[in-house]
Task: inverse folding
């Protein structure tokens, strides 16, 4: 069974704090790892897609790393701002089987207090 | 306007009724997807389409029907709605090519309540 786990489930930080959260996936069957940002009352928006072990991607204050050998990805937010409050989803594309399907985690809900 | 739009955004219906959720995209993306989002579950794929007239089942297809006669439209029909189909439904699209490394573009969601 392919499973994607995200931790923590939710997180409250103060404005200016840096934070990070984790996405775990099956390392033996990896093809790609996606991060999405989902603000309340909006639709998910893509942040990063990563395919190579050791990949690091950055978009403004948000960055992500990928370790395919151990099956995890970290998402970092530097100097959190209230507008960063959202649910951060990761999704995994397996190598085997139908690679059109993404397997989604439940997300980490981030609240940044001003 | 360019983008991906869903309608209706909110719908209340009764058990046994047929309901169709519409999805329209203006990018001519090859792939389109229908997901449902429920508490305690990640996004779950209902159906997807790789191109016009090509559709395939996702994880939870039972009780749903799709069609894709035109590239830009991908309607989802609940033939006889059940309470378990109360959910938020998201349509998404992406370009072709690659092995699912393209980003998905999501609609704003359709909240369906089945009484």
Result:
């Amino acid at each position: 069974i392919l499973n994607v786990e995200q931790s923590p489930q939710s997180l409250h930080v103060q404005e200016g704090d840096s934070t990070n959260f984790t996405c775990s996936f099956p390392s033996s069957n990896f093809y790609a790892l996606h991060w999405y940002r989902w603000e309340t009352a909006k639709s998910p928006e893509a942040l990063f897609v990563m395919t190579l072990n050791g990949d690091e991607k950055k978009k403004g204050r948000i960055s992500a790393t990928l370790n395919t050998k151990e099956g995890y990805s970290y998402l970092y937010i530097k100097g959190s701002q209230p507008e960063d409050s959202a649910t951060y989803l990761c999704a995994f594309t397996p190598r085997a089987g139908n690679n059109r399907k993404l397997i989604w985690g439940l997300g980490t809900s981030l609240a940044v207090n001003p | 306007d360019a983008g991906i739009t869903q309608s209706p955004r909110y719908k209340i219906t009764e058990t046994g009724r047929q309901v169709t959720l519409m999805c329209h995209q203006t990018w001519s993306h090859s792939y389109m997807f229908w997901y449902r989002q429920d508490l305690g579950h990640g996004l779950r794929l209902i159906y997807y389409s790789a191109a016009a007239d090509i559709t395939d089942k996702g994880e939870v297809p039972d009780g749903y029907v799709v069609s894709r006669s035109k590239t830009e439209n991908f309607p989802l029909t609940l033939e006889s709605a059940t309470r378990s189909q109360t959910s938020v439904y998201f349509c998404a699209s992406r370009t072709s090519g690659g092995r699912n490394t393209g980003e998905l573009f999501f609609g704003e969601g359709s909240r369906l309540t089945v009484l």
Q: What stands out?
A: Residues 14 and 115 of chain B are 5 Å apart (CA to CA).
